[in-house]
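Hi P.,

Sorry for the delay on this. The queue was packed all week, but I finally got your sequence through. Input first:
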Amino acid sequence: MPKRTRAGALTALAGAALAVGTALAAPAAAVPKPPGFLAAADLPPQPGTSWTAGKVTAGIPEEDRQDICVGVALGTGQDTWYREFRTDLDTSARQISAELPSVRVAKGRFAKLDEDIVSCADRIEMDDPTTQAAYQDYGTLPVGDGAHVYALHTETSWGASDVRLLSIGREGRTVTVVDWGRLGGFADAPVKAFKRTTTTAVNKLH
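Then the structure:
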């Protein structure tokens, strides 16, 4: 190898080694820590069975991304986590929480979720004429920086009937959604217990 070329190669190698050393010495980016989540015992009691809680997982489940009630408002899933809950019967639940860049953005996310849930029944019927949908507003809760509880009932032309309880809550920059569902109608939804669940969910965001 010519002398000049060898010198250039040695200089390049030294520069590469310095770059690697700098990268290794740089502190690793902090991994966002998920907010507090509900435990299985926090869900409304389900006669004849018990709740099982899954792991707190980063992101948003695909089915929630496509959900007509909350999918758009949930966003991209960045700095978002979820936890699934299930029983041995036909009842299941999920909590999704997002840590937003600022309180202002969190307020906007909360408002968008609120708006989309209120209009969800009408949009379901527009999207699928074979399904009838109705919602009920169970009001706000005095917890954190605000919470709101709703119910949604859908019934298809072939007789399938499902009820969901949906709540949204905010604490500072964090917004959470609790989604409970089972077969049945509004009368089958444990609204009082679900309000307690929502209060616990928001309190655990600290």
